């Protein structure tokens, strides 16, 4: 079986397990192609107000590695939002795990720059010269899409989530 088909099958199996939790959060998902997943997520502010976000998860190397995670525009899907966009979230404080958002991050000694959703449950974290804290490193068979999505849900919730970074209208 080709590697991409194995990755997709593993992702499908793990998505089946987390779908009820995603529904409880008001999140939905859909396959965009063989290995890219669109997740429509909600950021929840301290006052209970919600803001929509779209995540792109690339599972081409799943579950050997975590999915690649990016915040993207809903339309056209997959484009990187501006740092001043309503589609780019703002955070404050430190969750109980390493997490940061880099709108532009210089990968590979600046040969490539792209967005980095920086936490140990995202593939690009491991290609950005970061090192996970003890116990946070991705482990095949132990960590799943549920791990990645649960961490994202945690930072898109109080007390860390502050709202959209930008003032442009949705």
User: CA-to-CA gap between the ends?
Assistant: 42 Å
CATH architecture: Roll
Helix percentage range: 10-25%
Main sheet: strands, sense, barrel: 4 strands, antiparallel
Total domains, how many? 1
Describe the protein.
By secondary structure, the chain is an alpha+beta fold. The chain has a single domain (3-88, 95-163), classed as Ubiquitin Conjugating Enzyme, CATH 3.10.110. 20% of the residues lie in helices and 29% in strands. It has two helices and eight strands; from the N terminus they run αβββββββαβ. It has helices at 3-25, 145-155, and strands spanning 28-31, 36-44, 50-58, 68-72, 89-91, 100-107, 112-118, 161-164. The strands form three sheets. The chain has a four-stranded antiparallel beta sheet, covered by helices on one side. Helix 1 runs parallel beside helix 2 (145-155).
